[in-house]
Design a protein that fits this description.
Cell division protein; 7-stranded antiparallel beta sheet; about 40% strand; cell cycle; START-like_dom_sf; COQ10_START; Alpha-D-Glucose-1,6-Bisphosphate, Chain A, domain 4; alpha+beta; 3 helices
Length: about 150
């Protein structure tokens, strides 16, 4: 069960960072290379507590669908999305925001279990954990770029 943790400082107000991280539209922009798009549930704007979104994307050459729900939310400091259905056996993705030094420290923790038992564990070691870490970092760097550009 890998846990991927990333931290990124953003020179923008906490509310701005929190809302950008919950934005369906920003998510789609930041994951354009995997053709990720919201196809059900909340498909535009900000997702909130107990709301779901179903994503369709292409990963490893395979079109996939994944539905997640916002299971915890404390504005503007923290929210959690958890998979309801999709390629993983399970995942819990927490997003934390702390005001610091005139900006915001954004911390992500992506705790997941791959499907397929031992085969999934081998995939984690060989490529999946690295792939997921890169995907999350690229998304967060995009959030930082938008937040800092629009907060000046």
């Amino acid at each position: 069960m890998p846990v991927i943790r990333t931290e990124l400082f953003i020179r923008a107000p906490i509310r701005r960072c929190f809302d950008l991280a919950r934005s369906i539209d920003i998510h789609m922009e930041s994951t354009a290379k995997t053709k990720e798009r919201a196809i059900a549930g909340v498909t535009t704007g900000l997702i909130g507590l107990n709301e779901t979104v179903t994503w369709e994307a292409v990963h490893f050459g395979v079109r996939q669908k994944l539905t997640s729900r916002i299971t915890e939310l404390r504005e503007p400091f923290w929210f959690v999305d958890e998979m309801e259905s999709g390629a993983f056996k399970r995942f819990r993705h927490s997003h934390e925001f702390v005001e610091r030094d005139g900006g915001t420290l954004m911390t992500d923790s992506f705790d997941y279990t791959s499907p397929l038992g031992l085969l999934g564990k081998v995939a984690d070691v060989l490529f999946l954990e690295r792939y997921m870490r890169r995907l999350l970092l690229e998304r967060n760097l995009y959030i930082r770029q938008v937040a800092e550009r629009e907060s000046v």
